[in-house]
Each structure stands twice: as structure tokens, then as C-alpha cells.
Design goal:
This protein is α+β, with helices and mostly antiparallel strands. 63% of the residues lie in helices and 13% in strands. It folds into two domains: 71 residues; 130 residues. Strand 3 and strand 4 form a beta hairpin.
Length: 204
């Protein structure tokens, strides 16, 4: 099996699924030690977003080529930050319209609910990723702390939102989104809007 990382190919004579596991652990460990993250994985011409490890273990004896493209931790941070900024603008502009129907309190008028939940989950996941990679982006300590604080607040908000959904309280859910989540998203957006703009231009 040839494992190609950013164009550099290494041949591995894989004998068993256990051997494949150890090889993959070594490969990913080496990537991590260089402060890189896997951006894409292609197995014999097929691109995988997830599930690749299971494929490698089960089909190690028939796989010919694994192509891996990595991205630096710093570039990954600024890429996600830019995506998050673009998405935040849309959410701040449109979320009020999405939560209005929830104030009817009826489950019959909650077609927008899955969209709202998905948006909130994506924002929280992305911000948590920024927290994880912030040490690789040469940020000021004050900003790192602010991101930490926002992630912690997001976690509490998510718990409250989950509780309201479990009780079927759509009005309470809408209130938390409008008066807790949205102001925190605005705070994050304004605090990080200009962060790393020159670095992002250089890394593109």
C-alpha cells in the first residue's frame, strides 16, 4: 500500500488489520507532531469525509493507494475563522425570522427548528475547534481567553436549549436563542472580525 502525504509517497507492506492500525497511528501521529491537520483523505480514488479508518482496517489487503492532504494548524484556524464569520453574518441577519414561528408554542409550526438547531451546533462546533487550534495562530492571550469564555458559555447555552427541547418548550427555546445565544455570537463576531486578516491573506 502506498500512502501519499502531500505528494510524498511511502510504501507499506501491510500484513494484517493490526499492522494497518499501527501504521495509521504512526502516520497520524507524525502529522500531529508537525502541527498539521488532515484536510482530505482519498482511498483508491474515492474521497472520504469520515469512515476511512474502518475502510482501511477491513480492506487493507486490496487497497493500493491512500492520498492524504494536510493543512497547517495556523491555516486551519484562519480558514475556519473566516467561514465562521461569513456564517455568523447570515445567522445574525436571519435568525430572528426563523425563531418567530416558535413563539406560537405549537409543534405544528416548528419546520424551522431543525435549521436553527443545525446552525447553532455548527457554530458551537466551529468555535470549539478555534479554541483547540488557537495556540497555533499566535493570538494575543486576551483573545484566547475570550474564545475560551465564549466556548464555556456556549456549552451552558446548549445544555439549556437541550433541556427546553426535551420539555417541548419552544417559547423557552426561542428566548434562549434570541437573548442568550445571539448576543454571544455578536460578541464573538465583533471581537474576532479583524483577527489575523493579514495572516489570512498571506496563507491563501
Amino acid at each position: 500500500m502506498n500512502i501519499i502525504i502531500n505528494g510524498l509517497s511511502t510504501y507499506y507492506d501491510v500484513k494484517s488489520s493490526e499492522n494497518m492500525t499501527n501504521i495509521w497511528l504512526d502516520v497520524t501521529k507524525n502529522i500531529s507532531e508537525h502541527h498539521e491537520f488532515i484536510q482530505s483523505i482519498e482511498i483508491d480514488g474515492n474521497l472520504y469525509d469520515n469512515g476511512h479508518f474502518d475502510i482501511l482496517i477491513k480492506q487493507f489487503d486490496v487497497i493500493h493507494t491512500v492520498k492524504i492532504v494536510t493543512i497547517s494548524g495556523e491555516k486551519s484556524f484562519y480558514t475556519i475563522l473566516e467561514d465562521l464569520h461569513e456564517y455568523a453574518v447570515k445567522v445574525l441577519e436571519e435568525m430572528e425570522n426563523y425563531i418567530k414561528p416558535l413563539y406560537s408554542g405549537s409543534n405544528q409550526n416548528c419546520d424551522e427548528l431543525p435549521i436553527i438547531v443545525e446552525s447553532i451546533e455548527w457554530i458551537i462546533t466551529s468555535t470549539t475547534y478555534l479554541q483547540y487550534t488557537s495556540g497555533l495562530a499566535s493570538l494575543k492571550q486576551e483573545l484566547c481567553k475570550q474564545i475560551d469564555d465564549i466556548v464555556n458559555k456556549y456549552s451552558k447555552i446548549l445544555e439549556m436549549l437541550t433541556s427546553e427541547l426535551e420539555w417541548g418548550n419552544l417559547i423557552g427555546f426561542a428566548d434562549i436563542v434570541q437573548y442568550e445565544f445571539i448576543p454571544l455570537l455578536e460578541e464573538f463576531y465583533h471581537a474576532t472580525r479583524e483577527v489575523g486578516r493579514s495572516e489570512r491573506d498571506i496563507l491563501q
